[in-house]
C-alpha cells in the first residue's frame, strides 16, 4: 500500500498552504466575480439576462419536456459564454492597444461576430422548440 507523500510543515510564522478544495472554491469565486463585473458593465449582458428570464418563463408556461429544456439551456449558456468571451477579448484588446489599430478593430469585430452567430443559432433553436407550442 502506497501513501501520498507528506508535505513539509509550514515554516515558522508562515501561513498554511490552501488545500485543493480551497483553491477550487477560490477559482469559482473569481469566475462568479467575473460574471458579476461583466453584468455591471456590459449593456449587452443586461439584454441577455432579460432574454434568459423571458425564455425560462416561456419554457415554464409551455411545459417543455426534458430534451427541449436541454436545447434551451445549451443555447442560453452558449450565448452567455460567447458574450463573456467577447467582453474579455475587448478588455484585453483595449489594454494592449489603447490607440486605434486595424488589427485591434478586427479582433473586436470578429469577437462580436461570434456572439451574433451564436445568438442567431439560439434563435433558431428557440423557433424549433417554441414554434410548435404557438403555431
TrEMBL record:
One of its GO terms (biological process) is phospholipid biosynthetic process. Substrate binds at residues 23, 83. A divalent metal cation binds at residues 42, 90. Its main location: membrane. Pfam families: DAGK_prokar. Keywords: ATP-binding, Cell membrane, Kinase, Lipid biosynthesis, Lipid metabolism, Magnesium, Membrane, Metal-binding, Nucleotide-binding, Phospholipid biosynthesis, Phospholipid metabolism, Transferase, Transmembrane, Transmembrane helix. The active site is at 83 (proton acceptor). Belongs to the bacterial diacylglycerol kinase family. The chain crosses the membrane at residues 45-64, 71-93, 113-134. The keyword Hydrolase does not apply. It is a multi-pass membrane protein. InterPro entries: DAGK, DAGK_sf, UDPK. It comes from Hymenobacter lapidiphilus. This is Diacylglycerol kinase family protein.
Amino acid at each position: 500500500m502506497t501513501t501520498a507523500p507528506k508535505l513539509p510543515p509550514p515554516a515558522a510564522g508562515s501561513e498554511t498552504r490552501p488545500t485543493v478544495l480551497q483553491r477550487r472554491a477560490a477559482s469559482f469565486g473569481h469566475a462568479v466575480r467575473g460574471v458579476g463585473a461583466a453584468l455591471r458593465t456590459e449593456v449587452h449582458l443586461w439584454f441577455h439576462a432579460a432574454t434568459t428570464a423571458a425564455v425560462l418563463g416561456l419554457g415554464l408556461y409551455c411545459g417543455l419536456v426534458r430534451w427541449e429544456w436541454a436545447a434551451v439551456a445549451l443555447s442560453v449558456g452558449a450565448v452567455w459564454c460567447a458574450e463573456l468571451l467577447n467582453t474579455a477579448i475587448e478588455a484585453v484588446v483595449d489594454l494592449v492597444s489603447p490607440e486605434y489599430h486595424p488589427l485591434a478593430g478586427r479582433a473586436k469585430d470578429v469577437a462580436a461576430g461570434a456572439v451574433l452567430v451564436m445568438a442567431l443559432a439560439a434563435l433558431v433553436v428557440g423557433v424549433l422548440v417554441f414554434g410548435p407550442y404557438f403555431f
